[in-house]
């Protein structure tokens, strides 16, 4: 269980005060300043270009990697729920990562596995619907599932959020989003669907696109499509392409986000040596780092961000040395 330390609470309050004043605070809160969300604009399609947004500029200023709460603060709260988002916020972590899939009737929901079995009570409520695939259930059916009890009884009643609900909460918390399109091959057209929801929720305006939103996927095709539809959106490819292949990824991605066990300082340096889809040096956010020694190791390799289930542990590890 995560116990909020007094120092963290004070830091969070200081961070909030600075954010309200328009400034930035720690490495984990680098980016554009937070503020009230503007109304969604028309569905413009700005062209990709070399102009670096505010987030890109500040990411390189400080030494410590940016922290991302993986599926929210998922070491302490049920993954991909609003409770996990809120807990990350309480910890002073303003980037959260999530996983987006599509229901049978076309609603986008935030859930990691291809099936609902591990993280909900779907097997109890729908015993005859094996294998309980996300895409075989309607939004209404999924909304009725308990996505918290499997984790701990105090979270009983937590729901699988729709992407709309999730975006509203992240924005309400003045957090930023690393949105993963999960298993796009199962959901033809999910790139358009995702962009539509982002647009309707006010997440494709200049402020969000400029520093509050990154879309990632294990699928290069998915990112190519997304980049074609909205070339202004920052994208990250999940994986560890060979150095010889990196230039191909740089055509549609700004970042390469690898599993931490697969990288070396040389590989990191090779990625940084390329310019991505927006003409900026490519960046690297590595996952899933929950151990202090690993965090220091990847920091020393030069990664730009660390995606972790336990942001408090990793922050402490990086502050210690
Ligand atoms: O953000 C990286 C990470 O989420 C990729 O793996 O399986 O947790 O979605 P997975
Ligand atoms: Ca993910």
Describe the structure.
The protein is α/β, with parallel strands linked by helices. The protein is built from 13 helices and 9 strands. It has helices spanning 6-20, 54-59, 82-90, 122-125, 139-143, 163-172, 190-200, 206-209, 220-229, 246-249, 265-272, 292-301, 311-320; strands at 66-69, 95-102, 108-110, 176-181, 213-217, 234-238, 255-257, 285-286, 305-308. Strands 1, 2, 3, 4, 5, 6, 7, 8 and 9 form a 9-stranded mixed sheet that branches. Helix 12 crosses helix 13. The protein starts with 5 loop residues before the first helix and ends with a helix. The model is unreliable at 6-61 (pLDDT under 50). Residues 97, 99, 180 line the site of calcium ion (CA).
Shape from CA axes?
globular
Low-confidence regions: 6-61
What's the total helix number?
A: 13
Q: Which band does the percent of strand residues land in?
A: 5-15%
Alpha-carbon distance between the two ends = 25 Å
How are the SSEs placed, and which strands pair?
Elements: H1 6-20, H2 54-59, E1 66-69, H3 82-90, E2 95-102, E3 108-110, H4 122-125, H5 139-143, H6 163-172, E4 176-181, H7 190-200, H8 206-209, E5 213-217, H9 220-229, E6 234-238, H10 246-249, E7 255-257, H11 265-272, E8 285-286, H12 292-301, E9 305-308, H13 311-320
């Amino acid at each position: 269980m995560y116990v909020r330390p007094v120092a963290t609470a004070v830091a969070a309050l200081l961070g909030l005060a600075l954010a309200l004043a328009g400034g930035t605070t720690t490495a984990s809160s680098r980016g554009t300043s937070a503020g009230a969300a503007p109304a969604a604009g028309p569905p413009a399609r700005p062209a990709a270009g070399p102009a670096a947004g505010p987030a890109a500029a500040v990411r390189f200023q400080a030494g410590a990697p940016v922290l991302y709460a993986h599926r929210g603060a998922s070491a302490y709260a049920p993954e991909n729920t609003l409770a996990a988002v809120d807990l990350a916020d309480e910890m002073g972590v303003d980037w959260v990562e999530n996983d987006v899939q599509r229901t049978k009737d076309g609603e986008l929901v935030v859930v990691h596995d291809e099936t609902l079995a591990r993280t909900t009570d779907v097997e109890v409520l729908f015993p005859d619907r094996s294998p309980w695939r996300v895409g075989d259930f309607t939004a209404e059916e999924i909304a009725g599932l308990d996505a918290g009890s499997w984790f701990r009884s105090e979270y009983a009643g937590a729901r699988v959020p729709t992407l709309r609900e999730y975006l509203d909460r992240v924005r309400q918390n003045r957090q930023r989003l690393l949105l993963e399109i999960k298993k796009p091959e199962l959901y033809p057209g999910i790139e358009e669907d995702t962009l539509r929801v982002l647009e309707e929720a006010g997440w494709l305006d200049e402020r969000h696109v400029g520093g509050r939103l990154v879309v990632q996927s294990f699928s290069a095709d998915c990112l190519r499509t997304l980049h074609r539809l909205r070339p202004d959106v920052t994208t990250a490819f999940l994986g560890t392409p060979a150095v010889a292949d990196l230039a191909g990824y740089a055509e549609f991605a700004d970042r390469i986000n690898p599993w931490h066990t697969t990288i070396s300082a040389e590989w990191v340096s090779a990625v940084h040596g390329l310019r991505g889809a927006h003409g900026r040096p490519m960046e690297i956010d590595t996952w899933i780092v929950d151990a202090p020694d690993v965090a220091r190791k990847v920091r020393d390799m030069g990664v730009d961000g660390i995606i972790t289930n336990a942001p408090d542990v990793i922050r402490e590890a990086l502050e210690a040395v």
